[in-house]
Amino acid sequence: GRVPLPAGALAGRHVLVTAGPTHEPIDPVRYLANRSSGRQGYAIAAALAECGARVTLVSGPVDLPPPAGVAVTRVETAAQMLAACDAALPCDAAICAAAVADWHVAQRSERKMKKAAGSPPPVLTLLPNPDILARLSAPGPDRPALVVGFAAETHDVERHAAAKRAAKGCDWVVANDVRPETGIMGGTENEIVLITRDGAERWPRLDKQAVGRHLALRIAQYFSSDRSP
Ligand code: CTP
Ligand code: CA
Prior knowledge:
The chain is an alpha/beta fold. The protein is built from five helices and 14 strands.
């Protein structure tokens, strides 16, 4: 059955969620991107809204309807996603579920690049994108009380996810255990390890909808207790 959510537990809280891929244009018809359906981020946003939060969902290009009761800001690039997140501050919690492209093309062409007969293919120079999770995690007056990042790990899940938590400066990392022996890759279920300051919580196997509900419940618990992350 579906985990019951505490209606109203996040009333008066503003939560920012990023979801989907970003598209980094090469020219008007081509782009660089990560694979992402956006389903995990949308499920989290929906579950948080069900808990009564005001949710701002900053979404890259995906083929999903806006979740009920959620304000969606649609963006294309990582730079636009960062700007939309900054514009949404302040918030109580930020959940970075987006599969942000790590690079953008240094010199995007304003005109479609043509294959000239006999000439070599273009060489693309890439520049790093801003790390939105790290930026939201940085100390400052607008730093959300709770910042949550995601990671997919194929081995040493807890160690790598804990290292990612430290590197980004976020409070929690939702680590998806994609070791081949879990049989998770390509399936509909996830095996999640939640890394917090206190250690690692292993969740049962859940689909993306249920992961969203578990995370929303966990966030509601966090804000209804005096515990810091
Ligand atoms: N993330 C982000 N902005 C970026 C890159 C990543 O906000 N430019 C966030 C993702 O939304 C996710 C977390 O950082 O919550 C981890 O993303 P991941 O791609 O696993 O980590 P990276 O630091 O980009 O490392 P790498 O891709 O090299 O593993
Ligand atoms: Ca990355």
